[in-house]
């Protein structure tokens, strides 16, 4: 599925570690009084295994998840979801705009909890072992607002914006960390038919000024921290007239206006609600074709582009995604902590609320009991909320995996052996080789091994929604096994409102992103230059082109770029050319195998897909992040790597490597060789060719965060920014 803390913090999310007892096998080494006979614990393990073997069965033949379809536009191989003859445009009749969808939902679920926020009991600053100040918080229970109460707040805030002077046709920017007021502000603007401009809280000054000025924003809704940033750069903002800020108990002082900001109207969020309550105004509701959101991408290259999403685009996405999440109901609780300025989180919250689910707000720095910002003894957001659904970008799931692995390795001995046995048995069960997927053996391993692991995320997670970047096969399977939940890996882009595919929860395979959702066509077209064709066997391959009501209007004030990647066919269907390369499996599920921009031809003619190699490399426990670089004038690839500090330091101590600082360790040849050796093993296991595996690496001691400008808010690497920042290091790797 974010804040200063969340967005910068998402990259530094602490893995669930600490003293969690992963295994409860304290008696496994004891012999009973009979001497030499099996102990009760061994018998209790063997019986379920034997029963599962006896109940072994063959997997049933899986039905196709997609079927081919005749469409217009450029020739290619096109499929649609197998359950619907035509594309879905609305989740139900009449819900054709965000405002209509939300109003209907609030009427249906009025007394049910919708938005939850944790009580802040105490903040304090302590010193870390190296002397740095660390903020620690003590948090209480979640306090909830019902659908009915939230709808009232939306009405009041919407009317309050009119009281401040907001007029029809103006644009409102939301520049804040993920929280309940963000969601309320979005819905309030929808009722005024005001276009919301979404901006990442981690965006740099240049990109922020560009986004606000390009869209001619008149009103900014921000949190208290971002207010100070706006005031400091007010001279660069050409059209801003009013600012509404959300409260923050850590900042008591009133904002000080000076210079260009002196003419602004600056009011707290609560006061605007109060103004609207006193002077209610009838809504000015939008139509499906009106632009609901201009979403600025965090930009992997250059200045961010604003993608124009209509109300029709967004509700079509909701219609499609809702069908992909089985049994979505008011019983579900969703943990929200990713940036709402990112399409994954925005669509997730709109979709899940439409299904009656409750949304509890947290942050990456308070996500688990052992997260950086949580004071010892305080529950993390996940263990307090006990969500049934959670969204994550792959970088966060990788860190969860690494955290659990670290605990297992540090436990060692019998506990580690038991974990590995349980893990391998569960993998075999999930992949259909044993009945243990649902039999008594599953109950055994869940009780004995995996229950404590699942407690890290609250113990009730029934599904993980993953998107934003490719998820490694190893991490996907690890989450399946250890958390006992399917990972619904989706594929989509900001330009398609996140919508394209979503893997079926009953599909045990890894590495695929599923069939198209019912509101999207997926077409593969030939890319001759890269050697990908729809006539390829055994699977058709080509550039992925997405079509249907989820495809957005294009880029704001950038017609040239819009015309380059958007096309409308003779039947009126709008298509977006993604630049990604995919292939269809026989059952209609899509696999992403390449990206046109990431393919480099080496000196001897071999092609290296940088993104594919990076995805495989992230399976190494030594990696927190990486960028692979290939040069057409050389015969091998290299990599810039941000290692996982605990893993690298642990290896150094075991290997007897002395170092003064972590930076010193990263500069040692022995460390480089250890990491290089490990990624070589991981890449071979991932079936990469020898020429694809980096031959040299450079280790960096500083993490890549959105604030450094080296990764996006969704934690995808900014390839050009990294190449520029480490140009000298890349040159040295080729010497």
Automatic annotation (TrEMBL):
Which keywords does this chain's UniProt record carry? Answer: ATP-binding, Ligase, Membrane, Nucleotide-binding, Transmembrane, Transmembrane helix
Signal peptide annotation: none
TM annotation in the entry: 37-55
Tell me a Gene Ontology molecular-function term this record carries.
ATP binding
Q: Where is the composition biased (Polar residues)?
A: 1-14, 25-34
Q: Does the keyword Heme apply?
A: no
Which InterPro entries does the record associate with it? AMP-binding_CS (IPR020845), AMP-dep_synth/lig_dom (IPR000873), ANL_N_sf (IPR042099)
- According to its UniProt record, which reaction does this protein catalyse? a long-chain fatty acid + ATP + CoA = a long-chain fatty acyl-CoA + AMP + diphosphate
Report the family membership.
Belongs to the ATP-dependent AMP-binding enzyme family.
Q: What is this protein called?
A: AMP-dependent synthetase/ligase domain-containing protein
Please name the source species: Riccia sorocarpa
């Amino acid at each position: 599925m974010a804040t200063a803390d969340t967005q910068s913090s998402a990259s530094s999310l602490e893995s669930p570690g600490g003293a969690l007892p992963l295994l409860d096998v304290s008696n496994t080494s004891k012999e009973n009084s009979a001497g030499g006979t099996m102990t009760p614990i061994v018998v209790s393990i063997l019986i379920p295994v034997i029963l599962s073997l006896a109940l072994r069965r063959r997997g049933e033949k899986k039905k196709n998840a997609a079927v081919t379809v005749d469409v217009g536009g450029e020739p290619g191989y096109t499929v649609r979801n197998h359950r619907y003859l035509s594309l879905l445009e609305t989740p139900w009749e009449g819900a054709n705009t965000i405002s209509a969808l939300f109003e209907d939902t609030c009427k249906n679920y009025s007394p049910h909890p919708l938005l939850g926020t944790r009580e802040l009991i105490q903040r304090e600053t302590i010193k870390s072992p190296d002397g740095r100040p660390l903020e620690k918080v003590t948090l209480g229970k979640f306090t909830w607002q019902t659908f009915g109460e939230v709808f009232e707040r939306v009405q009041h805030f919407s009317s309050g914006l009119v009281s401040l002077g907001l007029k029809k046709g103006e644009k409102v920017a939301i520049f804040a960390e993920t929280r309940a007021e963000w969601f309320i502000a979005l819905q309030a603007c929808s009722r005024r038919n005001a276009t919301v401009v979404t901006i990442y809280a981690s965006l740099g000054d240049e990109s922020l000024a560009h986004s606000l000025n390009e869209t001619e924003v008149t009103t900014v809704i921000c949190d208290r921290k971002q207010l100070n940033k706006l005031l400091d750069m007010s001279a660069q903002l050409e059209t801003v007239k009013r600012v509404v800020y959300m409260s923050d108990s850590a900042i008591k002082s009133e904002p000080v206006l000076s210079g260009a900001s002196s003419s602004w109207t600056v009011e707290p969020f609560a006061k605007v609600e109060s103004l609207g309550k006193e002077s209610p105004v009838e809504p000015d509701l939008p139509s499906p074709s009106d632009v609901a959101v201009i979403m600025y991408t965090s930009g992997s290259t250059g200045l961010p582009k604003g993608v124009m999403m209509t109300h029709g685009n967004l509700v079509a996405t909701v219609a499609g995604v809702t069908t992909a999440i089985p049994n979505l109901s008011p019983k579900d609780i969703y943990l929200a902590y990713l940036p709402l300025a990112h399409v994954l989180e925005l669509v997730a919250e709109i979709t899940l609320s439409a299904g009656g689910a409750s949304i509890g707000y947290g942050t990456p720095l308070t996500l688990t009991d052992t997260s950086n910002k949580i004071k010892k003894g305080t529950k993390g957001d996940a263990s307090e909320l006990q969500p049934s659904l959670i969204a994550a970008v792959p970088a966060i799931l990788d860190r969860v995996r690494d955290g659990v692995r670290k605990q297992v390795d540090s436990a060692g001995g019998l506990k580690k052996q038991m974990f590995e046995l349980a893990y391998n048995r569960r993998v075999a069960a999930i992949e259909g080789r044993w009945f243990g997927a649902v039999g008594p053996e599953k109950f055994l391993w869940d009780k004995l091994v995996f229950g404590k692991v699942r407690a890290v995320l609250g113990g009730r997670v029934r599904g993980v929604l993953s998107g934003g970047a490719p998820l490694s096969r190893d991490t996907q399977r690890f989450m399946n096994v250890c958390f006992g939940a399917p990972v619904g890996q989706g594929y989509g882009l900001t330009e398609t409102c996140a919508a394209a595919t979503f893997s079926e929860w009953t599909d045990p395979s890894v590495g695929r992103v599923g069939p198209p959702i019912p509101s999207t066509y997926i077409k593969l077209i030939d890319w001759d230059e890269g050697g990908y064709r729809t006539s390829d066997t055994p699977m058709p391959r080509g550039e992925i082109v997405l079509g249907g009501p989820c495809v957005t209007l294009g880029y704001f004030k950038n017609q040239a770029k819009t015309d380059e990647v958007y096309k409308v066919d003779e039947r009126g269907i709008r298509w977006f050319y993604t630049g990604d390369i995919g292939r269809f499996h026989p059952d209609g599920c899509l696999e992403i195998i390449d990206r046109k921009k990431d393919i480099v031809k080496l000196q001897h003619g071999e092609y290296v897909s940088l993104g594919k190699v990076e995805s495989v490399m992230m399976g190494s426990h030594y990696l927190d992040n990486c960028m692979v670089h290939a040069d057409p004038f050389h015969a091998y690839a290299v990599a810039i790597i941000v290692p996982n500090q605990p893993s690298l330091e642990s290896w150094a101590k075991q290997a007897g490597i002395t170092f003064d600082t972590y930076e010193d360790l990263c500069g040692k040849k022995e460390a480089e060789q250890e990491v290089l050796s490990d990624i070589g093993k991981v890449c071979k296991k991932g079936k990469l060719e020898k020429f694809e595996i980096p031959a040299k690496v450079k280790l960096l001691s500083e993490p890549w965060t959105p604030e450094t400008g080296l990764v996006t808010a969704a934690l995808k690497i900014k390839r050009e920014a990294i190449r520029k920042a480490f140009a000298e290091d890349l040159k040295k790797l080729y010497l």
